[in-house]
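Task 17 of the worksheet. Students: predict the tertiary structure of the chain below and write it out as structure tokens. Keep your answer in the requested format; marks are given for formatting as well as content.
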Amino acid sequence: MSDSLFNAKHAIATRVPATCMGLHIRRASRILTQAYDLALRPTGLVVNQFTLLVAIHLFEPVSITQLAQDLLADQTTATRNIKLLEKQGWVAIAPGEDRRVKLVSLTVEGQAVLAEALPLWEQVQAELRQHFGEQKWQALLSLLSEVTSLS
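Model answer:
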């Protein structure tokens, strides 16, 4: 590679740490995920399981396909995560009217773990909201909604 081509690529690469939205979103996501996971630890849940349980609770019985679409996840990932919840005894999977469709609902244990997790989620939400302040909190939610509209 010529020196001028290397220098041009190097100049671009030096902008990445300060300006790459993907890098900053991934970093922020890891930090926030850690905060939620720590708060939810007493329940045995991590935040992605918590949000999946919430979605199932709100729409149950719900198909795995619909859950994947609602959560902007691919079908394989949604199925794998739901199987983990089933293994914990927190959800039940049953065939729909069309046997190809699998419907998910919370078990009694799933309802109990969700009930235990909701106040912990509220607490970490309040802490994060206080940290950012109401104006930045709302602005961040708004910007993230715009990002998800890109899909």
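Marker's comment: The first strand starts at residue 62 and ends at 63. The chain has one domain: 1-149.
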